[in-house]
Amino acid sequence: MVLYRENGWSSAEKPEQLLAGLRNSHTLVTARLNGELVGIGNAISDGHLVVYYPHMRVKPKYHGKGIGRKMMDVMQSIYGQFHQQMLTADGKAIDFYKSVGFERAGKTEPMWVYSGTEH
């Protein structure tokens, strides 16, 4: 959960739920450097039309080194032809996701019921 804590994600404080959620993903990718976990991403999908990427995290000291892009390449190799790919981004992540092809969905507004504190 260090990776989540270093990125300021409140889900790091719920390790059992976080691990269960990651294990139940449709797809889970990890990035390791000399055995160290430096990135993780997951997808939730119906397997045919729609995919949602809830977690794409890279340790802050490795930001800008192509790790996130490589993880998204893996996801695109699986879901690139799907009708709808979705995610929620904020802060510096917005520019990253734009650089890999995502854009704001029309006039949509992000909405959620959320019990975290980082937003």
Structural class: alpha+beta
N to C succession of SSEs: HHEEEHEH
Report the oligomer: single chain
Question: How large, in whole angstroms, is the Cα Rg?
Answer: 14 Å
Shape: globular
Largest sheet: 4 strands, mixed
Average predicted local confidence, pLDDT: 93
Number of helices: 4
Runs in which pLDDT lies below 50 for 5 or more consecutive residues are: none
Please state roughly what percent of the residues sit in beta strands, choosing from under 5%, 5-15%, 15-25%, 25-35%, 35-45% or over 45%.
15-25%
Task: Provide the helix percentage.
Answer: 25-40%
Total strand segments: 4
| Terminal CA distance | 19 Å
Strand order of the largest sheet: 1-2-3-4
Sum up the structure in keywords:
single chain; four-stranded mixed sheet; 24% strand; 119 residues; alpha+beta
Per-chain topology:
Elements: H1 2-6, H2 15-23, E1 27-33, E2 36-45, E3 50-58, H3 67-79, E4 84-86, H4 93-99
Parallel strand pairs: 3-4
Antiparallel strand pairs: 1-2, 2-3
